[in-house]
Amino acid sequence: MDIPSQIKLLTRGTTEVINLPSLEKKLFYSQSSGLPLRIKAGFDPTAPDMHLGHTVLLRKLRQFQDLGHEILFLIGDFTAQIGDPTGKDKLRPRLEKAEIEANTKTYREQVFKILDPNKTKVLFNSSWLGALSSAEILRLSRNVTVAQMLARADFKQRMEEGKEISILEFFYPLLQGYDSVHLKADVELGGSDQKFNLLMGRQLQEAHGCEPQVVMMTPLLEGLDGVAKMSKSLGNAIGINDAPSEMFGKVMSICDELMYRYYETLTDCDLPEIKAMHPKAAKENLAALLVRQFHKADAADKARAEFQKVFSQGDVPQDIETVFLAGEKNLADMLVTRKIVASKNEFRRLLLQGALTLDGHRLESEDGVLRPGVLRVGKKRFLRLV
After folding, report:
1. Residue 198: in which H helix or E strand, if any?
2. How far apart are CA 106 and CA 5, in angstroms?
3. Does domain 222-315 sit in CATH 1.10.10.10?
4. How far is CA 47 from CA 101, 104, 107, 338, in A?
5. Environment class of 353 (CB within 10 Å of its CB; exposed 0-12, middle 13-18, buried 19+)
6. What is the predicted pLDDT for the residue at 314?
7. Among the four residues 147, 159, 160, 340, which has the most C-beta atoms within 10 Å?
8. For the chain, domain boundaries
9. How far apart are CA 178 and CA 203, in angstroms?
10. Domain 3-218 CATH (choose: 3.40.630.30, 3.20.20.140, 3.40.50.300, 3.40.50.620)
């Protein structure tokens, strides 16, 4: 692939590249010398599960990998003890070592659904950061000013609101930046909210006499609601370990505008061709593509058939209300809380009458556990649970 084609591929769906001429120069040198670039991306093992929002960056790493470059998948087990202050209004609680190790194990299992394990270097920054002496850390801190730290948006906002900032939090971007120095990274990838931390890598590389890395930022993917950043805690996420039918149904619940954004960031499809399709067909195609990425080849076909079957039986309307399950565990409680039924007595009456079905199957237990699917309440009320 020629360099312009590589640039087009690698920059698709990114929010910002710093700096593009340098990336072009590095790619040309790599192609002419046969030496792969060192592509770094760091992940804090703060949660055990990954969702499609995480895969935006992982797919970009895979593109570099397919072009022959070296992927440095960095697990921030040392920096996780501080916690990334990005977007936070207070110091994060310290993670215990056992929790970090457990999350790290599941991370490694999940990322290789996208990355080639035989071409990926999994690294832990505790192996070098933990070896730094106090004198070395003090020398490192000379490269950054307090004014620089306080200029970052989240710290500035906390200062204006009178909220405390721990000196410990100042060290997070400093140590993340030093990771790039130690690894001699040519390119670092990160979310658009990571700009301050990513630029710190460039700054520290220059301070150590190295050529600064190119910074590539990927967007923060909106969740099912189309508004907030995808997050398990907000109940608007599509997990890469979700069951095929659950993943398919969740994708079918998104709005058309968000569908095209998912196409751009999560697939290699030609966007003009996709936009020429009927939105419903395009959405089913997207759902199948995403299921196929994370499950067996025939899982997408089965999920599509199951979805179509559910919506074709019982005259289920296509345009139905979507309910995001955000922590609820009991169906009766969820329906009463959201005022879908007036009371638990009404719920029990509907249950006895066989007027509550999930994906066409009659519900018989008052304590039924919630799961994604199409819920029918009475004769005319339909809800898509996601």
Report:
1. helix 195-207
2. 35
3. no
4. 11, 9, 9, 29
5. exposed
6. 55
7. 340
8. 3-218, 222-315, 316-386
9. 10
10. 3.40.50.620
**Separation CA 64–CA 215 (nearest Å):** 14
Give Dmax over CA atoms of the chain in angstroms: 76
CA distance 39 to 64: 8
pLDDT of the residue at 50? 84
CB-CB contact of 85 with 172 (8 Å): yes
Decide if 3-218 and 316-386 have a common fold. Answer: no
Instruction: Work out the angle between the directed axes of helices 195-207 and 167-183 (0-180°, nearest 10).
Output: 60
Question: How far is the C-alpha of 329 from the C-alpha of 339, rounded, in Å?
Answer: 16
Structural tokens at position 337 = 């809380």
Contact yes or no for 129/175 (Cβ under 8 A): yes
CA-based angle 249:252:255, to the nearest 5? 140
Residues 102-157: tens digit of each pLDDT: 877 777 778 888 999 989 999 999 999 999 999 999 999 999 999 998 888 888 88
Ranges in the chain, pLDDT < 70:
47-48, 87-93, 233, 310-319, 326-328, 367-369, 380
Q: Is 275 helix (H, G, I), strand (E, B) or coil?
A: helix
Euclidean distance between CA atoms 112 and 165, whole angstroms: 37
Determine which helix (DSSP H) or strand (DSSP E) holds 150, and give its type and residue range: helix 146-151
Contact, 46 vs 95, CB < 8 A?
yes
Instruction: Give CATH for domain 316-386.
Output: 3.10.290.10
